[in-house]
Amino acid sequence: MDGTGSGENGHKGPRHVAIIMDGNGRWAQMRRRPRLFGHQAGARRVREIVEACPDLGVRYLTIFAFSTENWKRTQAEVTGLMYLFRRYITREMQAFVKEGVCVRFIGDRLRLDPKLQALMDEAETLTRDCTKVNLTIALNYGARDEVARAIRDLAADVKAGRLEPDAVDETTLTRYLDTQVLPDPDLVIRTSGEARVSNFLLWQSAYAEYEFIDTLWPDFSREIFAEVVARYATRDRRFGAVKA
Ligand code: FPP
Questions:
Q1: What is the pTM of this model?
Q2: Is 39 in the pocket of ligand 1 (CB under 6 A)?
Q3: Residue 36 lies in a domain
């Protein structure tokens, strides 16, 4: 929505944190366990990190759970992950309401199993009025896919006469993205030592700060999260301008 990021109520922490939760497979491998064991441990961490948000002043948390490229993994891993997402949403839904967590999903949900889609819709409806934390789960999400879908919808509106081509600017395109109701991320964290962005929130992260940390996602604790958030407060964000 707005590109100016943090600063709500004068606090210097990030208002919106986005996380690429990487390293589940290696974490499991180190324990000689199947990759899915790592994903299960990773899912447990999600709850801890969501719970930590209010104390850290983080109002928006967006997590990358499954990318448009993740379909290339083995059938067994994809099926296991889809089962995990269904179980996770089913189990957590009431807790989200109790804890004031508003859940949203971004990504192309039409390719997902109808039962999973129904659960996603249900979770969004049930938590719609929650205001403590905004949790966005990216499921079958790819930034390029998101932009392509946005442009397709925008082009349809132009064709139907609802939008003038000359009126299209950055704000217009932003309104067609899956993230239309979210502020831009202030901080993007990637765990597991890989320093790449893997098609995550490319448009929205134009001015985000990045943190690439070595910890594998299943070991990413509330304490490490607090450290990374505290480090962000020391950064000097200029959004392309120079300081007065
Ligand atoms: C990347 O680690 C992780 C994923 C592709 C899946 C992310 C899923 C979770 C953290 C668990 C469930 C999430 C929710 C919201 C319930 P990787 O498998 O690529 O790890 P590797 O690079 O070590 O192989």
A1: 0.94
A2: yes
A3: yes
In residues, how long is the chain?
244
Closest ligand 1 atom to Cα of 28: 23
Establish if 119 belongs to a structural domain.
yes
- In percent, how much of the chain has pLDDT > 90? 91
Residue 120 has pLDDT above 50, yes or no: yes
Instruction: Give 132's Cβ-side CA count (13 Å radius).
Output: 15
Number of domains into which the chain is organized? 1
Is 183 close to ligand 1, i.e. is its CB under 6 Å away?
Answer: no
Question: What is the share, in percent, of the chain residues with pLDDT greater than 70?
Answer: 95
- Which structural domain, as residue segments, surrounds residue 194? 16-142+184-232
Q: The domain spanning residue 41 has which CATH number?
A: 3.40.1180.10
Residue 91, domain member (yes or no): yes
Ligand 1 centroid distance, CA of 117 (Å): 20
**Buried residues in 101-129 as b, exposed as e (16+ CB within 10 A):** bbbbbbbbbeebeeebeebbeebeeebee
Task: Report the nearest-CA residue for atom 18 of ligand 1.
Answer: 25
